[in-house]
Amino acid sequence: MPGSSAEKRVVVESTPTTLALRVADRFLTRVRARTRNGRLAHIALTGGSMGGAVLRAVRENPRSAEIDWSLVHFWWGDERYVPRDDADRNALQSREALLDHIDLPAENVHEVAASDSGLDLDEAAAAYAAELARFGSDDHPWPSFAVCFLGVGPDGHIASLFPDRDEVTVTDAAALPVRDSPKPPPERVTLTRPVLNASKRVWLVLTGADKASALGLALAGASYTSVPAAGAKGRKRTVFFVDEAAASEVSPDLIDQAY
C-alpha cells in the first residue's frame, strides 16, 4: 500500500510465529534508529498472546544486544487492575517475556499501579496520567511514543477502549479508569485516543480468523466509536501486522509487500 504516510498499511505473514518474528525485527530496527544518537525512545506495549510473542522474539533476536536499553522507556496502553503478581497483568507478562531479561534501568519501566498498591482505581489512573506528564512536551502532557503496540479484539477494541462506551470519546484526559469492562477483568486503566494517536508509529498486531471482521471494518473507515481500532492512527505510520487468517477479508491491493 505505497503512498502517503497517513495511509494504513497491512503487512501479512503466514502464521502468528512468523508474524512475531517480523514485528520484532522491525521493532529493533526502529529502536536502533531512534536511540542511535542518544535520543530516548518511549514505547507503549500491549498484552495478550501476540504482545508476549513479539517481546519474546525481541529477546531472542541477536540484534537485541545492539540496543542501548537505558535509552528506552516502556509504558502500557492499558492495564488490568489486579494484584502486581497476577498472571492477567500486562506488565507481568511483558517482564517475563522481555523486560526482566535485558539491561533496563528500573526507572525506565512505567507500570500502572496494581490493585494491591494501596491506590484505588481512580487514583491509579490519576497516578499514571501524572507519570506520563513527567515526560510530556509543550504540545501535550504525555510522551510521544516512538512505537505504540496495540492488540485488537474481535469487537474492534484497542487498549481498554471498547465499542460504544464513554471512554473511547474522551479527549481531555491521558488515562482513565474503566469499570464493568465487557472483557474480564472488569476494572482496568487505559490510555485515551489522544495519547495513542500522538504516537509516531501505531502498530496493531492481530491474528486469527476471529479478528478478520474487525480488521475489515477498521480498514474500511468504520466509526471509531463503534470500532475503536478504526480510530487508531500514528502520526507517521499506522501498520496492521496480521497473519493470513486475520487477513482473509483484506483486499490484496491493500497489502503492503515492501514494508
Task: Give me the Rg, rounded.
Answer: 17 Å
Strand content: 15-25%
The count of β-strands is: 9
Mean pLDDT: 95
Helix content: 25-40%
Shape: globular
Biggest sheet details: 6 strands, parallel
* Order of helix and strand elements from N to C terminus: EHEHEEHHEEEHEHE
Tally of separate helices: 6
How far is the N terminus from the C terminus? 9 Å
Question: Spans with pLDDT under 50 lasting ≥5 residues?
Answer: 1-5
Reading side by side through the largest sheet, how are the strands ordered? 1-9-8-5-2-3
Structural class: alpha/beta
Any descriptors?
259 residues; alpha/beta; six-stranded parallel beta sheet; three-stranded antiparallel beta sheet; 6 helices; 9 strands; 26% helix; globular; disordered N terminus
Secondary structure topology:
Blueprint: E1 8-13, H1 16-35, E2 41-45, H2 48-60, E3 72-76, E4 78-80, H3 90-97, H4 121-133, E5 147-150, E6 175-178, E7 188-191, H5 193-197, E8 201-206, H6 212-219, E9 237-243
Parallel strand pairs: 1-9, 2-3, 2-5, 5-8, 8-9
Antiparallel strand pairs: 4-7, 6-7
Helix pairs in contact: 1-2, 2-3
